[in-house]
Design a protein that fits this description.
Elements lengths: L31 H21 L29 H7 L4 E10 L2 E10 L7 E11 L11 H12 L5 E4 L5 E6 L5 E8 L2 E11 L2 E2 L2 H18 L1
Antiparallel strand pairs: 1-2, 2-3, 3-7, 4-5, 5-6, 6-7, 7-8
């Protein structure tokens, strides 16, 4: 069962009142957005992934791939290039690796965090790789590729921006619910790929433009290897 938090643990963005504290006021604690980011990131982003992206964990009887499914299993975290991760999140270290059954398929969850001391790379990066399998019991039959397309459409909100990755794959990217976050989703064959990034620089959440560019550049490099 995959239970990794979708977003950034408290220590990533400087919990304990260090981030956003006033040097002159002494003991004012984190700013409101910092507290919201620390407390809400995991719950809010996990809910968005589970409901919007269709990431519902399977029960005791996992689904099996069909002979026509391009992927018979979800790629593992080891398939994600380390240089791509470090480019998006300098100083990143693995936080969570999960692999297991999914309703209608199989999924891997990979999370990295960074506490780069210069403050330029502090944040978290999460990738979900989910293989969707053909449902022959449906009428009409829903192929794994079609299921991945539907999952992508469900994950990307109406406000999402459509972008073309370097390899020609169309992706949806959108602003996360919290400051400094951007999310992205794309489909290839019968696989859905979701990326979420949250970052901080100089004690403040990064701009959406910077977060957006980070996830798009990372997804383009990931696209080349999958």
């Amino acid at each position: 069962m995959i239970t990794a938090p979708y977003g950034c643990p408290e220590h990533v963005l400087g919990g304990g009142g260090r981030v956003g504290s006033s040097a002159a006021g002494g003991g004012l604690g984190p700013r409101p957005w910092t507290r919201a980011l620390i407390i809400g990131a995991g719950a809010v982003l996990l809910a968005g992934a589970a409901v919007g992206g269709g990431l519902v964990l399977a029960g005791d009887d996992p689904d099996r791939p069909d002979g026509d499914d391009a992927l018979a299993s979800a790629p593992t975290c080891a398939s994600i290039p380390e240089d791509a991760v470090l480019s998006a999140l300098p100083g990143a270290t693995p936080e969570t690796e999960g692999h297991g059954p999914l309703a209608g398929g199989e999924s891997s969850t990979c999370v990295w965090t960074s506490l780069d001391p210069d403050g330029e790379g502090r944040g978290s990066l999460r990738v979900d790789l989910s293989a969707r399998f053909t449902d022959a019991s449906a009428e009409p039959v829903v192929t794994g590729e079609r299921a991945a397309v539907l999952a992508r459409d469900a994950a990307v909100p109406v406000r999402g921006e459509q972008v073309d990755l370097a390899g020609g794959t169309e992706a949806g990217v959108w602003r996360g619910r919290l400051p400094g976050t951007a999310e992205l989703a794309f489909q290839r064959d019968n696989m859905l790929v979701r990326v979420s990034y949250v970052g901080e620089a100089d004690g403040e959440p990064v701009s959406f433009g910077r977060a957006r560019d980070t996830v798009v550049d990372f997804a383009a490099r990931l696209e080349e290897t999958l």
